[in-house]
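tokens incoming
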């Protein structure tokens, strides 16, 4: 501060040619010039600076309000999306459980159908076996009967006369016809 005062008081540095001159001491004149410039800026620029700061403040507050509204809207949309997600998960679980139940039901139906077909095949096999057994038994009976008949005829031919022989043959033919009608 002493340098500033000395620059005004000390006239030894002032040129002698006139009453007005330039002070060439930079250290002494620079703070004065800066203080004058700052004073003028503060005095005239105060209103402009306040307006700029107020406008900036209003824009910042408006941006904050808009951000808050957007945040609230986003939170609401997030809650709606979460509710939809929960609903979709519940529906997916229901479809999954229904699908598993449907698969199990179809599996049981397929097993039952296969069991029924197997039982039908078994019944058809048993019927075929029974039929073949009966046919074989009938064939054996017919052969045994034919052999017995031939043996009896041979015995009768050797023991009987021709009239008795013809009567016996007719009786046997009648018996064979009735047996054949029964089996057909």
């Amino acid at each position: 501060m002493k340098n500033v005062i000395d620059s005004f008081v000390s006239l030894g540095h002032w040129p002698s040619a006139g009453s007005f001159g330039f002070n060439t001491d930079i250290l002494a004149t620079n703070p004065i010039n800066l203080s004058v410039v700052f004073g003028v800026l503060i005095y005239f620029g105060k209103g402009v600076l306040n307006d700029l700061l107020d406008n900036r403040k209003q824009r910042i507050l408006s941006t904050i309000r808009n951000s808050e509204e957007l945040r609230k809207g986003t939170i609401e949309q997030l809650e709606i999306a979460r509710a939809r997600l929960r609903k979709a998960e519940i529906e997916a679980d229901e479809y999954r459980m229904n699908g598993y139940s449907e698969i199990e039901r179809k599996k049981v139906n397929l097993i039952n159908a296969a069991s029924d077909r197997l039982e039908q095949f078994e019944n058809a096999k048993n019927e075929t076996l029974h039929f073949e057994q009966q046919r074989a038994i009938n064939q054996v009976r017919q052969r045994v009967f034919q052999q017995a008949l031939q043996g009896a005829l041979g015995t009768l031919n050797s023991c009987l006369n021709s009239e008795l022989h013809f009567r016996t043959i007719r009786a046997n033919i009648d018996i064979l016809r009735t047996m054949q009608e029964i089996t057909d």
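note: The helical segments are 2-9, 26-159, 162-183.
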